[in-house]
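Let us practice reading a record.
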Amino acid sequence: MEIITEFLRIKYLALLVAIVATIRYSSFSHGRAKYFLFSLWLIAITEFSYEFVFYLFDHKVKTRFVGNTYVILQFSFYILWYRSLLINERRKRFFFFSFLLFLIFGVVNSILFQNFYEDTQTYTYSLGVLLVALVIFSFLIEFLRSERIIKFDRSIFFWFSLGILLFHIPFLPFRYVKELLGFKTNDIYRFAVNSLNIIMHACFLIGILWSQKKYNS
């Protein structure tokens, strides 16, 4: 029952955010923010996939490959999406090669170190967090130097960035603690994950509902 309870804590919140974003799509569909809708649905689908796989294979198959697939897809999207938002060409080239590095590292890690189907790929996740944090900070530097800083709180880009950073950076050490020390059902770990998910999705919702169309291009 514990694992089922764990699934129920997050998945409906992710689905709610994806649905609200779809309803409010017109407020950010005119610019590159529109692509983030795919990211929100990827989160929701992934959360539901854990339970689906768990029951489909009668509890006999580990669901870690679901999370590992999510990390590859989501972080690849983050890197490429934020790269498209950058103005500086040198930074754009750097993050294109960073994206290639991330994919290559993911393959090598799956073959030599952490099995894609059996293990949680903490190494790939760690590199992904580092690269995503770097590309987001690069975007925010350009963003805050532009005229859009006057109404930064009305930009959906700001709230999306804040949500991603507030989840993944604090979550990274908790993920290592879980894997290295074996806290598989630790209440502190579950509380941290659920709290960070609430914070991230709250940022997404604020951006979707509070942002203004003219600042979302």
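A brief commentary: The radius of gyration is 18 Å.
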